[in-house]
Each structure stands twice: as C-alpha cells, then as structure tokens.
Amino acid sequence: MSKMEELLRQQEQIAAAIEAEVVRARDEAALGAAQGQYEMAVLMHFARGVPKNYPEAMKLYKLAAAQAHIGAQLNLGLMFENAQGASEDFVQALNWYKQAATHGNGEAQWRLGMLCEEGKGAKQDFQAAMQCYKMAAAHGLAEAQVAIGLMYENHRGVERDYAKAADWYKQAAAQGHLEAQTRLGQIYERGIDIKQDFAQAMHWFRSAADAGYTTAQLHVGLLYEHGQGVKEDVHEALRWFKLSAAKGNADAQTKMGFMYSNGRGVKQDYHQAMDWYRLAAEKDHAGALSNLGFMYEHGQGVEEDEPRALSYYARAAKKGDAYAIKNRDVLMAHRAEHEAHEAALEAQKAAQEAHKPTK
Question: Whose CA is closest to 22, among 34, 35, 45, 39?
Fold first, then answer.
C-alpha cells in the first residue's frame, strides 16, 4: 500500500469514527440522556463532524445542565461569556460557572475567578477571585496558578510579592505553561524579591522560546546581547530577535530596527531599520514611534522631515516615552528659535526697504 493510499485509508477511518460518534450522541440525546445531550452540544458548539450551530448547542447544554451535568454548566458559561448563541451576558456566565465550580470543576473555578477579578457579572472582588483561583490551582490547573502569580506580581488585592509570584509560576512552568516559564524567567532576570540569576532566567526563557513563545525569544536575545547568563554573542542575539520579530512581536521588531540602525550584529542599514520600526509602529509601539521620529529628524534612511518627526514624537510622547518627550521638546524649541530668527530677518529686511532713499 502506497503512502497516499495509507493516508486516504486513515482519513476514511477518522471520518467513520466521527460519524459513529455523531450518531451515538444524537441517539442518546434523543433519549434524554444528559451525557448524550452534552456530547451532541459539544459537536455543534465546536463544529466537530457537524455544522456549527450555537442555538441548538445552547438548547442541548441547558437540557444537560438541568440534570446537573457539570461540563454542560461550564460550556453554558463559555457561550454566554463569548456571545455564542446569545448576547454577551456576564451575569449568566457567572451563574453557570458558579454551578460548575460548586461541583469542583477546576476550569469553572478559574473562569469564575477571572470574572470576579475583572468585575464582570458582579462587583469586582479580588479576594473572591483569589479564592476561586486557589481552588482551581489545587486541581493543578496551570492557568489558575499563573493567575495567582499575576495577582502577586501586579498587586491585585494582595501585597506585591515577586517571590510568591515566582512560586506560583514555577508550578505552572513545570507543566509546560509558556507564559509562566517566561514570567518566571523575567523575575530571575530582574532579581526583585529573589536572588538575581541569569542562568535560571535563560533556562526558563529557552524552554518557552524553543516552543515558539515570542516574548521568551526576545528575552533570550537580550541575554545574549548583554552577556547575561551566557557569553555575549550579538549574532545569536540578532537570530533570536528576528525569530520573535518575524512572528509579530513589536518589542522584537523595534529591537531589530535598533540593531540595523546601529550596526549591531549586521551592517548598518537605515532602510532595514525603518522597515522594522514601521512594523512595530503599526502596532503603536512607543519605542518604534520615537525612533522613527529620530530618523525623520536626522534624515536617516529617509529625507529629513521635521514635521513628520514631530508627529511621531507626539504619538510616542502620548504613551509616556521619555526620549520622545525630550526630543519633541528640543525639536519644537529649535523650530521656534529658527522661526523667530527668520521673522527677525524678515523684519530687518522690511525696515531696510522702508528706509531706502526714493528717486
């Protein structure tokens, strides 16, 4: 049997299995079995073997949920939260998550915590959110462990504590959670509340970076650029920046612009720098906007254009970029001085013309 024939045979087997699952779930749902109703709803909800049908999925979820089916209660919450089959309704989402959470469903506990933290469906309540997250984390749910870490890191209802955040991130990182690995790496990189450890930072960044997580790839590049935890290697840094930038990371795109603008690891190329800065500027990245302003002000890779430079500086300044604020103010003062000088020359010329003797 050729590889193509084997592939076709496997596809036929998969199609037959899906069809059998649809038939079984439909038959059980018709008999009023909660599990059958739930499974048929899932097939319609996520278009697995049948066309997507949110209204019918919601109807079946409700029938199953009325029989205390926990998965149906959870998925009803998802549908109301995401406006699938009904208008967005956080109150309804909160209600269904509560029912599933009461029965010990970890994902429902985590999602309930997010609604409490964000104040959706009820008044914002950080303590209730933390309680929900901890119940979900007790089930080993990595997303909940990350959520707790974020609350400690961002001072949400608890004192900011990077050491405690790191402890929670470690639990999720050990399960392969890429954001947790990256945030753990950042805490080791900064060394706040725990001992700074670039080797540990690189370990966790590489773990997430190798899996394609763009923020981690950026940080791997930064450690190589500055020789932190590894031997300084600007070419290796550039390779990681480019991997991240190619996937749309605005920080990495700005870094690529900087590398080309300053000839770091590559031949200086203002045109390439402009291309990378513009990609990041399209995402309204403050640093990229500021650097574009500088290049237009000084005619690097483009014709010198002070009005356009001021426009970019102004956009970056609105985002609080200190360099943009400084460069904008200096450029505006320079332009005002130049305009005043020109006005004085014009006035002097006019005065001279006025005192010329007449014939």
Answer: 39
- Indicate the pTM of the whole model: 0.83
Structure tokens at 281: 């500027």
- Return the number of other C-beta atoms located less than 10 Å from residue 271's C-beta: 10
Per-residue pLDDT, 337: 66
Q: Residue 210 carries which side chain, given as an amino acid letter?
A: D
- For 268, the token pair is 């200086």
Please name which of 70, 124, 122, 118 lies closest in space to residue 97, comparing C-alpha atoms.
70
Separation between Cα atoms, residue 42 and residue 21, nearest integer Å: 11
* Cα 298 from Cα 326, distance rounded (Å): 15
Query: Does pLDDT of 15 surpass 50?
Result: no
Distance, C-alpha 220 to centroid of its chain = 18
Question: Which helix H or strand E contains 84, and what residues bound it?
Answer: none
> Looking up tokens 């460069």, which residue turns up?
327
Would you list the DSSP string of 27-62?
HHHHTT-HHHHHHHHHHHHTTSSS---HHHHHHHHH
pLDDT in tens, 93-138: 999 999 999 999 999 999 999 999 999 999 999 999 999 999 999 9
Radius of gyration of the chain (CA): 29
Whether the predicted pLDDT of 165 surpasses 50: yes
Would the pLDDT of 8 be above 60?
Answer: no
The residues, any chain, with a CB within 8 Å of residue 220's CB and separated by 6 or more, are 202, 205, 206, 209, 240
Write out pLDDT tens, residues 228-279: 999 999 999 999 999 999 999 999 999 999 999 999 999 999 999 999 999 9
